[in-house]
Amino acid sequence: MLRGFYTAASGMLTQQRAQETLANNIANMNTPGYKADQTAIRSFPEMLIQEMRTNKIPTTRGLKLPVQEPIGSIHTGVYVQETIPNFSQGDIRETGLMTDIALVQGNMPDETGALFFGVQNEAGEERLTRNGNFTVDGQGYLVTNQGYYVLDAAGNPIQTNGMDFTVTPEGIVQTSDGQAVPLRIRYVADANGLTKEGNDLYNGDGVPVPAGATYNIRQGYLERSNVDALQTMTDMMTAYRMFETNQRVLRAYDESLGKAVNEIGKL
């Protein structure tokens, strides 16, 4: 009976974590370039239950032999193994702002491959993002809304000298003074291995775009989040019902244990 408490409790904790992940997806539904998280739920390893006893052999010395007889397997609950972002392409929305840049990826040489903008965080380290909601800071550098420098192909901040610049479909930033600077577009073969950080940043090693990958840069557009609001709300209701089901099981175990202690224990 006590094992049933742990099994039901693990189910409640798992659905609570799944609910938190879904709620975070809903909260970032309007965040440009946001990639929805998906929870991978697994069960704990099964345990084999055996009956351990001894058989007495009718001899003069009264020998006893240990015997182990298998009874069957028992499940020990579930847990959230990991949270995996969904890197599918989001819808493209026109904004009319020339500082907004959408990265539209086409064919990828790897099934789990994805493309990202290369930016520089506050510690001077390179990070990856799909949020192209950029702006120009007071010094004329192209930055994200959080103030992170957008990098060129060589890994240096891009100086646009103001808002008057254009970006070609190939990702070349053309400034008013005649400079042509390529954006730092990075390719990750296994995007599921990236570590998700705050402010729409991913930590991982990217490489230059390989020959088999195609993409298109669209200025004045933004990639919307790929959160499916209807499906997410349905999943939230399912997680809530599963939580309630485990809660009722836990309550039933508690009532049974109470009867065993208060009623059967009196006999």
UniProtKB/TrEMBL annotation:
Localization per record: Bacterial flagellum basal body
PROSITE patterns named in the record: FLAGELLA_BB_ROD
Record domain Flagellar basal body rod protein N-terminal: where: 5-35
All copies of domain Flagellar basal-body/hook protein C-terminal, residue ranges: 218-262
InterPro entries: Flag_bb_rod_N, Flagellar_basal_body_rod_CS, Flagellar_FlgE/F/G, Flg_bb/hook_C_dom, FlgE/F/G-like, LlgE_F_G-like_D1
Annotated Gene Ontology cellular component terms: bacterial-type flagellum basal body
A biological-process GO annotation: bacterial-type flagellum-dependent swarming motility
Chief place of localization: other
Stretches that traverse the bilayer: none
Keyword ATP-binding: no
Record's keyword terms, sorted: Bacterial flagellum, Cell projection, Cilium, Flagellum
Limits of the Flagellar hook protein FlgE/F/G-like D1 domain: 113-174
Family statement: Belongs to the flagella basal body rod proteins family.
NCBIfam families, sorted: FlgEFG_subfam (TIGR03506)
Protein name: Flagellar hook-basal body complex protein FlhO
Organism: Compostibacillus humi
Gene name for this UniProt entry: flhO
